[in-house]
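Review form for a predicted model. The reviewer records the input and the model, then writes brief findings.
Reviewer: anonymous (R2)
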Amino acid sequence: MVLVQAEKEQIKNIVEISKRAFLSDVFVGSNEAGGPPEYDSVAWHESMRADGHLLQAMEDGMLVGAAILFWHETVNILYVGRIFIDDVYHKKGYGIALMHCIEHIYPQVKEICLETPIWNVRTNSFYKKLGYIEQKRENEMVYYKKTL
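Model under review:
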């Protein structure tokens, strides 16, 4: 898998993948269909792309997912705003490959932080499996950190 800056012409495809990925959350604990704020917004994803935060995940030339990352250069901390894999690729190792790419995209990063909803059984077990350590629970969210 390769993680590269999102291409403007891929934004609509990325948003469609985001919608499919997050709509599947109803199968892992969500009470309703939907996703995080702006998960279905072309304008928001374009803004994330323009600011350099949106990266597209490519496997053998195919778009399989994306990540929104915020690198705090002064303290060498990377915050994972969100990741998503097209639901047709769920449970096939693409999420793990995406996280490995994220963990190596900025070699100087010493720590990666992220959060996920308490109710999301899939993501909580996923991050723990990858070595992320729970830091706290607050406002229906679980906060994780991994030191590299």
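Findings: The first strand starts at residue 2 and ends at 5.
Further findings: The mean pLDDT is 93.
Recommendation: see findings above.
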